[in-house]
Structures are given as C-alpha cells and as structure tokens.
C-alpha cells in the first residue's frame, strides 16, 4: 500500500517522556506505519496508509493527550452563497485529506478553513471547490496566518513569560515571608497568621502558574505513562500539601516548618528553565525558517497577452512568468526568452551567480541579478525544489538517530524508577534520620530527588544537535535524508566514487579516430548511425563528432544496447558492433593490429571504442571525459579525513588507472558492469568496511541503496537522489567532504551532550538523596530549590552546546 507522511507541529511538551507518550499513542492507530515525535523541534513525523486513516486523527490523538497540534488557518471569500450551498461546500472541504475543519458563513460567503499545509495546499483546496462549481473573486487574496507554527510558538512563550513574571513576584514575597524569624518587621504576625498569608500567596503559583504541569501529568497518567510533569507535580504538591496541613493543624508544627517557599520557587525555576529552553530551541530551527522566507508571495504571469500579478498559489503549470532584475524567481521552470545572471547561493551555497540562457532551468526562490527573462513554470507548489528541500530538512530533523535509542530507552523507564528512588529516600530518612528533624529531611530529600532527576537533558541531547546539523547542512547545499544518515556518515571509513558524472563532467569528446579497413568519413557514418538513438554519453560524443563533420548518418535497424559492452545494430544492411574489447572478443572479432593503439589511448586516460562492420574490425574511436575542476581537491580533502578513496568505473583498467593516477587515487575498481556495482559495494562491506558511495546516474541507484551511506550529486537523476541518504544540491564533489565533516562534528556534539546528561543524572540523584550527609552533615544536603535550578541548567547547557554547531564552516 502507498504511504504518505504528515509533519505536525506540537505545543505543550515539557520533556522527552511527553514526546514518547504521543509517539506511543499515535503508533497504536490503525494504518500508521512509523511515527517519530521529536521533543527538540516539537514536531511529529508520521508515515501512514491514507486508505486506512486520515491525518486529522493524529491531531485528535495529540489533543486528547493534553497537547496542542498546530495547523494553518485561512479565510476565503466565496461568491453566490446560500444556506444549501454553504452546507455542500462545508461537506466537500471537510472530506478533503488534510483539512481539519471548514466553516462557511451562508450570509457573507466567508469560509474559514483549518488545514495541514504539508498534506494539502490552499491552492488545491480552492481548485477542488472550483471543480464543484464554487467561484472566488478574481485574485482574491487569502487571509492566511503567516506562520501558524510561529504564532503558536510565540503564544506559548508569551504564556510562559506571563506565568513566570507573576510566579517570580509572588515567590519573592513568599521567600521573604519564610524568613519571619530573621526579619523583625514580620514578627508582628503570629506564625500561624504568616502561614495563612503564605498559603494565599502560594496557591496561585501552585495551581495557576503550575496548572499545565497538572494537566499534562494527569493526561499522561490516563494514557499509562509518566513524565517530567509527574515529578514536578508530586514534588511541589507534597511540599504545598504538607505546608497547608501545618497551617490548619498547628499541633503538627513541632515536626518542622512550612515549605511554601520550596513549592513556589521550584515551580518558578522550572518555568524559568522552560522559558529559556523554549527560546533556545527556536534558534535550532532557524535554517528551515530562513528557507521558508525565501519564497516570494506573488508572481507576474502573462495571460491573454497581459501581465498580471497573482498569488504564488495561483500559478499553473505552463504559465509564462516574467522576472525582472532584483526579483526572486517564484517557482521552478525553463527559460523561454531572455537571459540573466542568477544568484543560487541560498540553495546551493555557491557564491558565484550562474548565467541563464534560453532552455536553461531556473529554481524558485533564487535571486535574479542582472537581466529580465520569461520562463515557463514546470514545477509549482510542493513540487518545487525549495519545497522539497524544506520537507527533506524537516523530515530529517524529526527523525531519530540510532544513538538516541539508548537515551529513549532509559527515559522510558526513568520516571517510574526515580519515583521509586524518591519514595525509598523518604522512607530511609524518616526511619533513620535524626528524630527531631526526620520529617523535614525526609520531605526535602524526597522532593530534591524528584526535581533533579528530570530526563530533559537526555531527551534534548540528540535531537537538538540533529536539528542544528541538518539545518547547517542545508545552508551549504547538503541535504540529509534522516538522522540515521547524518550519524552513519560520521562513521564511514571507505568512500567509493563513481567516475562518469561524478569525478568527470560526464560529457566526453572524440579525441582520436584510427581507421583500419575504411576511411574516416565512412567509419564515422557507421558509428554515428549505430549510436543515433543512444543515451550513453560516449555514444552522444560520437554523434556530435559526426555532426561537426556534417556527415549525414541514417536510422539504424534492430538497435540493441549491451550494458557494459556497447551496442549491436544494423546500418544500411550491414551488421555493426560498437563497444569495448570484451564485446569484440565475445563476437570473435580479430583486434591484434589495433591492440597496441588501444593500449596507448588507455594509458593516457582515453577510452578506446572499437567498431566492427560485418564481423571485420574497422578501427578505433578514442573518447575522453574531462575531469571536473574540483575533483582533485575533493579527493585530497577526503584523504585528509582519513578515508580510503576508491574509484569505480566501467572503463577498462588502463584508462581507469590513468584517470585515478591524475587524481591521486590508488585503489581502482575498473570494468565493473552497471549490474555489478551493487555487488562491488557488498564485497567491500564484507571486508568489514563502512562504505559511502557517491554517484549521479540511474545505474548508480542500486549501489547507492546498498552502501551504508549513499550520496547523490544533485545534478543527477531523480532516481539516484531518491535512493541516496545524502543529496548534494550543487555539482561540486567538495561538498562530500563538507557533509562528512559536518556529520563527524554533529556526532561529536551528540556524544558530548549524552555524556554530560548521563553524568548529571548519575551524580545528581545520589546527592539529592543525601549520600553526602554522613561526610558533610546538613551542608551535604541538596536544597530542592537548587535541584530545580540545576535541572533547568542541565537542559539549557545541552541546547547551548548543540547551538555551537551553527559556527560550523
């Protein structure tokens, strides 16, 4: 069954266990293939079977858990509306895949639609309505929220800020009131009265500022899971409840004082940590936001011989679009008239502008520099390169790296274990603690263990680094398919480079023609006729050579391509073989007089192509494919990374060795047929190597899939790009080294994050439980307020460490 992917922004998650609970709930739904919920970028990536389930079900599941799924809202004006038509339109829109709700005002025709933009575009919604007979005002501008995810994020930050400010003010007053014995001006209040005042001040902090802790904790318990909110709720409620009990039962006051300050300040500090963490996390996703801002909102199209400015959503395939100097190109297309210089650096990382002439392709969101031109729209909406890049980066950021599995496994059982440790701590202190203060020490250490043990840092360690790493890669024109690709690329030790189109330009030229039994014109006639319909670069080179000499060649009969060998056809009634020496040997064609010449060509990096007519050798055509300018530097950089560089080619060994020698490559796998490339990669893997393969053609796709990491040159075929783990947008092999260095740097950052997160929890919990008390007395006990501050600091430090990747260059 065909699968689709939905990317759903989520608000309200407070730790990695929240993400795990959502992931677990969605995974239970029928028709869900895979689901990854990322706490760091606050998105769920769900792969599902659309025949079995609608994407709106995921939103329902998320909302039922107490979190908020984010979607876009648009308001459209519809003409000729009445009550029956309004109901019909609502039914049509509501049944569309990706539309969450639709509400039509029968009196005004204003239609409010809530939809998932990665599932359906506003343009598709309008087109569906138009096909059903509904009309919109000409060029009606949709009132679309500029960025629903951003608005929800800003709303969450604003809410956190408001709660934090009030909580901080009240907590300060509560803290002052808790030092009644030390502040003479407060001694006018009896202790019981002061506790009542503190209870009144603490209650809004506990139940208003901390309300979402209770909501999320209850939602997670109902669905059979525990998270950070559970720890905060249990700890602060214990302090608040015990203090409230003392306030109304004065006879218990001999067992210790009230801890309203502990409850209030813990909530304040947790809110403070959440606020800083949320702000920091927004910076990890800046790369995608920058890409989204590149796309212009309007396009200038030619319709009925008039230039019209329309919304980019209204551009159709085949539209002729005018672009002037200084404007961004709206969508992908082909130049039909005019010429210019286009800055593609925002997508490819290439600083130099690219000249564009009639017939050249242009990419949407790139910047037109000098001239004006008209181009035909060939890709619009989700099909444009920019849209595909954004989606690829979002999916990579939302995926999970293998190294994260350990952290996820630990986090999944962490909260129940911590609660057990906290209860054991309470019991031990209550039983064995100093009699006069045992309830105080038991309660404070119980709360400290709960608060300091939050697994947020572990949950943030991997995804924040992945988000910044993949975003940074996009800035350099390097796209990682998923987090696993990013991690694996940092572990490779062998890199296999396909020759044609990767190391070389892939556009060979005829350099020499050696005739045996016929003249040059006749031989080129047979050769060009045989290759007339060939798609092979060498065949095209022979055809170009014949055209340059103005030879009128003919259509061949019974053409048959022999992959890895050459071609077999009939030209003017004569049987023609064109290919390598292996083909000639198979057909029993004598080549002795040509062998020495062929070897000389091969020794200088030229490929000898033999031609035989009616089973008689006719001569050799030498073809050479020139190296790309950056190939030598790229190989040098890969070697500096400590990699074993291997060249893979179907050329004969002499030619391959000559080219490899000029690049400094010592290991060459030559005369490898297209069908054997995959087996060649497998053989290297059986030697215990972790292999990356770089290629650009259709015949590279199986090898790219087989490799531990497949890397496709972006100028290659869609098949190769689809089969790869890493796509290089620009045709520059040096980007391979950039991708690998970024991967290694990201992997190092992840390991550093995980080390400190595990170290923090391993050290923090025993200290909070009171393990240092026998050595330092009460000074060795950890105040719960300091525990909450340490918890917040651990998460912020992990995010800050990941943000250092933004300096990668």
Descriptive account of the structure:
With 809 residues, this protein is an alpha+beta fold. The protein contains 29 helices and 30 strands. It has a seven-stranded mixed sheet, with helices on both faces. The chain has a six-stranded antiparallel sheet with strand order 10-9-11-17-12-15, with no helix packed on it. Strands 20-25-24-23-22-21 form a six-stranded antiparallel sheet. Helix 21 (592-603) packs parallel to helix 23 (653-663). Residues 139-146 have low confidence and may be disordered.
Write the SSE topology.
Layout: E1 4-11, H1 16-27, E2 32-38, E3 43-48, H2 56-64, E4 68-69, E5 72-77, H3 83-94, E6 99-104, E7 110-115, H4 122-131, E8 143-144, H5 148-178, H6 191-209, H7 211-222, H8 228-248, H9 260-284, H10 286-294, E9 298-303, E10 306-311, E11 320-323, E12 332-338, E13 340-343, H11 345-348, E14 354-356, E15 361-362, E16 367-368, E17 373-379, H12 385-398, H13 404-432, H14 438-452, H15 456-475, E18 478-480, H16 483-489, E19 494-498, H17 499-503, E20 509-515, H18 520-530, H19 537-548, E21 557-562, E22 566-571, E23 574-579, H20 581-586, H21 592-603, E24 607-613, E25 616-624, H22 631-640, E26 644-648, H23 653-663, E27 667-669, H24 677-686, E28 691-695, H25 701-706, E29 709-713, H26 718-723, E30 726-728, H27 734-769, H28 773-776, H29 784-803
* Overall average residue pLDDT: 83
Major sheet attributes: 7 strands, mixed
**Percent in helix:** 40-55%
- Strand tally, please? 30
| Total number of helices | 29
Strands of the biggest beta sheet: in what spatial order? Answer: 18-30-29-28-19-26-27
Q: Give me the secondary-structure category.
A: alpha+beta
Quote the distance from N terminus to C terminus: 42 Å
Morphology:
elongated
Low-pLDDT regions: 139-146
Which percent band covers the strand fraction? 15-25%
Rg, please? 34 Å
